[in-house]
Amino acid sequence: MSSFRLDPKYLAFQVTQEVFYQLFYGRNDRLARKFESIVAAWETRRRRSDVPVSSTIWETEYSGEKWNFLESINELSRYSVIAGYISYLKPQAAVLDIGCGEGILFDRYQGHGYSNYLGVDISQVAIDRLADRQDAKTRFIQADAEAFEPTELFDVIVFNESLYYFHRPLMGMKKYCHALKPNGLIIVSTFNTSSRGKAILRKLKEQYRVLDETEISHRPSSMSWTCTVFKT
Ligand SMILES: C[S@@+](CC[C@H](N)C(=O)[O-])C[C@H]1O[C@@H](n2cnc3c(N)ncnc32)[C@H](O)[C@@H]1O
């Protein structure tokens, strides 16, 4: 029989991480910045699935089909809620999908109709898989979204499980607000078991007005997400 042992170091770090995200995240004083660099270094070593990683890691993971599970029925509700929000709130929208991955949101949403769809992802492997979806109003490009500067305006910008991969998510949100048309909306989907994701969402809610929000809970897998629509 295998015995289950808790790693005390891992537990200690989880507590530290929780304290950081609850009390220090988003603060700009010296102590908070120091704390953040310690937590970030540890998260990167552990390859947690909700922290910034290099483009090489994304390429390896997409080549290894690691993200194929996003196509499964377990994830369907998340895409459906976001697609529903876009089509209900901004029919025929110009959409910017940041961290679009292999275009699953696009596939679920495209039947609703749109004027312009731009997907941006750091992974060339993921973008290459979207070659057959491109046309005059549908584009997918490889870029680091933290450095990317949009040259057009959008009705809706979506961060579908992607904002917490930014090194500076709050700065990222601020930058993309400038790429919205008047009365444009930003939709952020956040995996509920990510302390980092939840801390980012908490900070966003302090800074931007929430138009609507849906909690999604998939019973068989026990996975849940929060989809928040921000007006700026
Ligand atoms: C969890 S996956 C979600 C993919 C897609 N939004 C979906 O839900 O199907 C996160 C995505 O964000 C992308 N990503 C991570 N950091 C990024 C960055 N700095 N710029 C652009 N894309 C990034 C990854 O390559 C990956 O495709």
**What is the makeup of the main sheet?**
7 strands, mixed
The total of beta strands comes to 7
Give the distinct bound molecules: S-adenosylmethionine
Number of folding domains? 2
The neighbouring-strand order within the major sheet is 3-2-1-4-5-7-6
Please compute the radius of gyration using only Cα atoms.
18 Å
Please report which band the strand proportion falls in: under 5%, 5-15%, 15-25%, 25-35%, 35-45% or over 45%: 15-25%
Alpha-carbon distance between the termini? Answer: 56 Å
Report the CATH superfamily of the largest domain.
Vaccinia Virus protein VP39
Tally of contiguous helical segments: 8
Mean model confidence by pLDDT: 94
Helix fraction by DSSP (H/I, runs of at least 4): 25-40%
Write the layout of secondary structure elements.
Elements: H1 8-24, H2 30-46, H3 55-63, H4 76-89, E1 94-98, H5 104-109, E2 116-121, H6 124-128, E3 138-142, E4 154-160, H7 169-177, E5 180-191, H8 195-207, E6 209-218, E7 223-231
Parallel strand pairs: 1-2, 1-4, 2-3, 4-5
Antiparallel strand pairs: 5-7, 6-7
Helix pairs in contact: 1-2, 1-8
S-adenosylmethionine (SAM) binds next to α5 and β2.
